[in-house]
Specification:
The complex is a heterodimer of chains A (about 270) and B (about 280). With about 270 residues, chain A is mainly alpha-helical. Chain A contains 11 helices and no strands. The longest helix of chain B is centred in the last third of the chain and has 18 residues. Classes of the chains: A mainly alpha (about 270), B alpha/beta (about 280).
């Protein structure tokens, strides 16, 4: 019995009970702990206060504007960065010359902390969404680029030989073998990218913004509304989970032949 | 494994296929003249893989190349297919010198080499698509060849849903889809179990008779080489040289019973003796 409890595979329903039960336990401990030790809600609010803040945020409509702005930044930045990363990845994956000439700059740029460049982008692109989109794009860019290159380069030798023996041109090899072979890799890059995109947008808003969930966090932090900050953290993490799940579903649909994806870590 | 029973079902579409096979562009002769191949190993040593290999095949001939592992027979096939370059010497296909891949040639590799994102039918159509052939015609032909290799009903499946033997048969249908004048096979049944392999060999002879193509098949099995070949090219261990070319005078209609005849045994032991003499068998 004990053995099965620790090592066995659980049925789905038992799993749900375990996960849900443990979650309730943690919430209960949190709430009781805060009350027992009389922690000031200004320092560390209990889950009840946080949930109340989430509720009022949603019900009063206060979140919607900021949520819309941040989602816009995340999605536009993601699209821009992923698109650029993919296109440059295809170019570099096809040409050793481009790789030799361009890749050092790409790596140098990647080693630069994006948070450090963020203030510059605000100077160049203003306090509106544009600067956040650009910051997000620069963060999403690299994982998509790197994965695209690896995917295109790792096409099995014998598949390429088969194409060559059929008199395929270089473009036909790219289009019919390398590109589909690279897709699971590209999706692994997109999966990392989408999680990073959330960070990118918030970092951008921290540096200087007029709206957005990151902006709201700063505002509430200044006014000592700690429960309000916690509430936004929950919303942000829900956004991250949702987008990540969306990419996973898309990946499974598009690259149905790939057995399993190398589980990729987020940020 | 359902491979054997599947072949029984393949007899019906033969008549239907005859129409498609009646229009090949004609078998293509090929030849090697003074082929040398050297390459640098990872430690910088020059390794001679092939040394002065010369032989020719007439149009429609079934030529088997037999030799120990590492004798360069696969390299020879890759050179003929245009996916490897000889260091020196000339290759000809259809009477013309050949310098690269040719539309005349269909290749079956050791592994099935199917594209996992394409269905069986889509995989079979790859050469037709690459060479921008009439896709309606190619599609009809692909379906014919698929049913001929016993894969009727599997056209819409993906490679991972098929057994190894079935995947390899998709590879054969794919090699045939453009009705090539020359079919190259690199130990096509090496990964299959003995039973399936025998059935596949019989099937291959039937396909060959239908399509009329010239065939070069590389194997390390002497009985297989004798069973399939009109002539058997025997190669020595590295550096690969041709030590003997054996004309096999068995009835053109080969049957599995033939394997137990004295004549068949004599060919096999003759070739084995030759390989032994060149140090090919330890």
């Amino acid at each position: 019995m004990e053995k099965a409890f620790f090592s066995g595979a659980y049925s789905t329903s038992l799993r749900r009970v375990l996960v849900g039960g443990f979650f309730m336990l943690v919430m209960l401990a949190w709430q009781l702990g805060v009350q027992w030790f009389e922690v000031s809600p200004l320092v560390f609010p209990g889950p009840v206060a946080v949930l109340r803040s989430v509720y009022t945020g949603v019900a009063s409509g206060e979140y919607w504007l900021h949520l819309g702005v941040t989602l816009h930044e995340i999605l536009a930045g993601f699209a821009l960065g992923a698109g650029a990363g993919f296109l440059l990845g295809v170019a570099i994956g096809q040409s050793r010359l481009l790789e030799t000439v361009l890749y050092p700059y790409v790596v140098a740029f990647q080693t630069m902390p994006k948070v450090a460049i963020a203030p510059l982008f605000v100077v160049w692109f203003g306090f509106g969404v544009a600067s956040k989109i650009v910051i997000t794009a620069t963060i999403v860019f690299f994982p998509v680029l790197a994965n695209t290159i690896v995917g295109l380069r790792s096409a099995p030798r014998d598949q390429v030989d088969l194409m060559t023996a059929c008199t395929a041109s270089r473009w036909q090899v790219l289009w019919m073998v390398r590109f589909p072979h690279a897709l699971p890799f590209v999706f692994a890059g997109l999966d990392i990218g989408i999680v990073l995109a959330v960070i990118g947008a918030i970092v951008g808003e921290f540096v200087g913004a007029q709206a957005g969930l990151g902006y709201l966090i700063l505002q509430r932090n200044f006014s000592m509304d700690t429960a309000g900050v916690f509430a936004i953290l929950i919303v942000l993490s829900l956004i991250g989970i949702g987008l990540h799940a969306l990419v996973k579903v898309l990946a499974r649909k598009v690259t149905f032949w790939a057995e399993s994806f190398a589980e990729t870590a987020g940020a | 494994m359902s491979s054997n029973t599947l072949f029984l079902a393949a007899d019906a579409p033969l008549a239907a296929h005859a129409a498609a096979a009646a229009s090949p562009r004609g078998a293509a002769a090929f030849g090697f003249d003074g082929i040398h191949k050297t390459y640098r190993s990872t430690d910088g040593q020059a390794v001679t893989a092939l040394q002065d290999v010369s032989f020719h095949a007439a149009p429609g001939e079934f030529l088997t190349v037999v030799g120990p592992s590492g004798c360069g027979k696969s390299t020879l096939l890759r050179i003929l297919a245009g996916i490897a370059q000889a260091t020196s010497g000339t290759v000809s296909v259809g009477g013309k010198p050949s310098t690269g891949p040719s539309r005349e040639i269909g290749v079956v590799f050791q592994a099935p080499v199917l594209l996992p994102w394409r269905t069986v039918l889509e995989n079979t159509l790859v050469p037709a698509q690459v060479q921008r052939r009439d896709m309606a015609v190619a599609r009809r032909r692909a379906l014919d060849y698929l049913s001929m290799v016993g894969l009727k009903g599997f056209e819409g499946k993906y490679p991972r849903e098929l057994s190894g033997g079935m995947q390899q048969r998709v590879g054969i249908a794919r090699a045939l889809v453009n009705d090539p004048g020359l079919l190259l096979m690199d130990e096509p049944f090496g990964a299959l179990d003995a039973m399936t392999r025998e059935t596949m060999n019989l099937e291959l002879l039937r396909i060959k008779a239908q399509s009329g193509a010239t065939v070069m098949l590389v194997t390390h099995s002497i009985p297989e080489a004798v069973f399939l070949g009109d002539r058997v090219v025997v190669m020595s261990p590295r550096p690969g040289r041709v030590t003997q070319i054996v004309q096999v005078d068995l009835p053109a209609q080969r049957t599995l019973d033939m394997i137990n005849t004295d004549a068949f045994g004599a060919y096999v032991s003759g070739i084995r003796g030759n390989l032994n003499a060149s140090g090919g068998l330890d």
